[in-house]
Amino acid sequence: MTPLPLTQTRALGTTGPVAAAIGIGLMGMSDHYGAADDTESAATLQAALDAGVTLLDTADFYGSGHNELLLGEALRGRRREDIIISDKFGLLRDPAGGWAGIDHRPGSIKNFLASSLRRLGTEYIDIYRPARLDPAVPIEETIQALAQLVRKGHIRHIGLSEVGADTLRRAHAVHPISDLQIEYSLFSRRIEKDILPTARELGIGITAYGALSRGLLSGHWTPGPAPERDPLRGRDVRFRLPRFTGENLDRNLGLVEELRVVAEAKGVTVAQLAIAWVLSRGADIVPIVGARTRERLAEALAAGDVELSPDDLADLEDAVPPGAAAGTRYEVSQMKVLDSES
């Protein structure tokens, strides 16, 4: 299946770049969702670029560098000016693939960036962002360090990820923030209360990851036994997330079936409906879709041509009211340290 070409573009805030309306998140090609096929991942990235996708989201800790190497290889022979690399740093990994803390010290940021530039095979990163808030380093200090890298031309824009409204204001007061990367979907709407209005007040765009709620809203997820877990690449963290376990999963899959009724009446898939809903939330929002195969990519990009009428939006609100999803989006221990949830 050949992906439809993307024709719409959206600006990432008042100071950020202009991107195609749907971006691709690479995380699942290296980490967190079980073993991936490098050959299919590479083919999917090439298909995405051929279809006009411009925003590609990665992180130096996805697969402990594997993800950046995968992206760097995909970009060989492509016009660098046509690509928007969104990269994250700051989360530390240990040799067994576990997590070893957060580090946003200015010297560490320079070190992370130097390694990322080498793996990506580029002289600059378009949007560089801390993946989480480091409680040991004031956000002002982090942004000042990133601003120096902007002035030196190593990065073009500063982004943030999973921070709350107050942190967003403090950061933006030091240097313009292009966009906030944060989970936003029919199942995750908390940002609508304070974070989204603050971002809009400040002219900060939203790159909405989790548009399909890690596959729950894809319409393809079925419960099953947890896969055998490889120390680095074989683990699927979703089997530990509250929304994917027990009665929560049953409740959430029931909501998906309600969405399927709406989708079938409109002649689209559940995934396309869910992505189209995120697109409908404003021209300052770019959904990030974690397609790992060309088939799923083609399905996702077709959502760019789905128009939702007021009646369609009302049907979606009836099918999945705000707060209807059962279970938190991360494990309880992680929810407690997310600045966006404070």
TrEMBL record:
Residue span(s) of domain NADP-dependent oxidoreductase: 21-319
For this record, an example GO cellular component is: cytoplasm
- The keyword Oxidoreductase is annotated on this UniProt entry: yes
Mark the transmembrane ranges.
none
Per UniProt, the keywords (alphabetical) are:
Oxidoreductase
SUPFAM superfamilies reported in the protein's UniProt record: NAD(P)-linked oxidoreductase (SSF51430)
Pfam families (UniProt xref):
Aldo_ket_red
* Gene Ontology terms for molecular function: oxidoreductase activity
Origin: domain of life: Bacteria
Protein's name in the database: Aldo/keto reductase
